[in-house]
Amino acid sequence: MSASATGIPGNYQLIDLSYIELLSNGDKAFEKEIVQIFIEQIPQDLALMKAHFAAGDFNQLKQSTHYMLPSISIFGLENRLKVELEALEALESAYKVLKRHLETVTKVCNKAREEAITLLHSYA
């Protein structure tokens, strides 16, 4: 379900509010809080993943990726990033492939964060 179909203005290419709306049962303050947490947490999660990758600490990269899954899932991003996230958790791909996956996760999450900021401003 798109955000515009829920009465919340906006045209979102990435984020899907279906799960948040199900959890909130119409509680807009709860929805707003979840959106705010996502906006604040995603840059920290991505920075941590990048740092672990750059340091070659792949066990920590794997843990950071796993830790990030709930944030990604609540906004419906898990299907879009399924291949990349599974590869980063499994660590079975070549270095260049893992780097490309991390870049894709970063790009998608940053765009989703921009959409979440727009969404946040739509709450009264």
TrEMBL record:
Q: What Gene3D superfamilies would the database entry show?
A: HPT domain
PTM Phosphohistidine: at which residues? 66
SUPFAM superfamilies recorded: Histidine-containing phosphotransfer domain, HPT domain
Output the Gene Ontology terms for molecular function: protein kinase activity
Q: What is this protein called?
A: HPt domain-containing protein
**A biological-process GO annotation:** phosphorelay signal transduction system
Supply the alphabetized keyword list: Phosphoprotein
Extract the InterPro entries matched here.
HPT_dom_sf, Sig_transdc_His_kin_Hpt_dom
**What's the superkingdom here?**
Bacteria
Q: Where is the HPt domain?
A: 27-124
